[in-house]
Amino acid sequence: MELNVMLALRLPPEIEARLDELAKRTGRSKSFYAREAILEHLDDLEDIYLAEKRLEEFRRGEGDTVSLAELMARYGLAD
Predict the structure, then answer these.
(1) InterPro entries from the xrefs (predicted)?
(2) Does any domain span residue 39?
(3) 40: domain range?
């Protein structure tokens, strides 16, 4: 079952104008392009936040580390 969620966004006027123009040129809705932009970048944002969390854990001395040589050997990339 697909659940639709309504989301209201305030965009700077210049971005709104660009989005309007793109929608007019292509015959697609502004919502389509907003949804596409969110989906395109959501994975990247999640990766960034995970990397920041792991970096903080590393700085606190938490978690395991692996040397580059060990990592390469593990995946059969060693000479």
Answers:
(1) Ribbon_hlx_hlx, TraY
(2) yes
(3) 13-75
Is residue 67 within 8 Å of 77, Cβ to Cβ? no
**Amino acid at position 24, single letter:** K
CA distances from 59 to 45, 47, 49, 52, 65 (A): 21, 18, 15, 11, 11
Tokens 């966004």 label which residue? 9
Residues 6+ apart with CB under 8 A from 28: 22
| Rounded-to-integer distance, Cα 69 and Cα 77, Å | 9
Q: Note whether residue 1 is domain-resident.
A: no
The one-digit pLDDT tens for each residue of the chain (79 residues) are: 667 778 888 999 999 999 999 999 999 999 999 999 999 899 999 999 999 999 999 999 998 888 899 999 999 997 6
